[in-house]
Amino acid sequence: DVQNPGNVGGIMRTAEAAGATAFITTASTADPLGWKALRGSMGSALRLPIARGDMAEILATVRAAGIATLALVPRAGQPLFETDLRKPTALILGSEGPGLPDDVLRHADHRITIPMREPVESLNVGVAAALVLYEAFRQRNNDAVPKRQRP
């Protein structure tokens, strides 16, 4: 239910860059093919498979495919950097204001939280998505990323 089309486009762009294989939205999410989202995606919306649907159907389809569901919450979830993201995973993001509704949280396999120092209570949804996507990228490609050599 991300409302800002610029955030939707930016998340798609980051998802593609980090190696995501699809982008799924609910009907109440800003149109991923609208001009502001397309501009924010810088072409990723044209390369990354996009699906729209009802959240209950999305969760059922993802679960049937053996994909774990992780709900990103601002507090009380498993710390991001202690979460194993190496297996197929669907990241569930909430809208910019209220976040994820309780019915979605109840059906997610796990809740994860990005550590933040007080007094910050939350991050922009695009920034939060980027942090999780790149942690997954790091975990999945740890051996593929060349180590810096010391002189």
Describe the structure.
Helix 1 packs parallel to helix 2 and helix 1 runs parallel beside helix 6 (125-140). This protein is 37% helix and 15% strand. It is globular and about 35 Å long. The chain contains 6 helices and 6 strands, in the order αβααβαβββαβα. The strands form 2 sheets. The protein has a 4-stranded parallel beta sheet. A two-stranded parallel ribbon has the order 1-2. It is of the alpha/beta class.
Q: How many beta strands in the DSSP annotation?
A: 6
Shape: globular
Low-confidence stretches: none
Order of helices and strands: HEHHEHEEEHEH
Helix content: 25-40%
SS element count, helices: 6
Structural class: alpha/beta
What is the radius of gyration? Answer: 15 Å
| Main sheet properties | 4 strands, parallel
Proportion of beta-strand residues = 15-25%
Question: Roughly what is the average pLDDT, rounded to an integer?
Answer: 92
Main sheet: strand order:
4-6-3-5
Give the terminus-to-terminus CA distance. 49 Å
Keywords:
alpha/beta; 6 helices; 151 residues; four-stranded parallel beta sheet; 15% strand
Give a brief description.
With 151 residues, this protein is α/β, with parallel strands linked by helices.
Can you lay out the helices and strands and say which pair or pack?
Blueprint: H1 5-17, E1 23-26, H2 35-41, H3 44-47, E2 50-53, H4 55-64, E3 68-72, E4 78-79, E5 89-92, H5 102-107, E6 110-113, H6 125-140
Parallel strand pairs: 1-2, 3-5, 3-6, 4-6
Helix pairs in contact: 1-2, 1-6
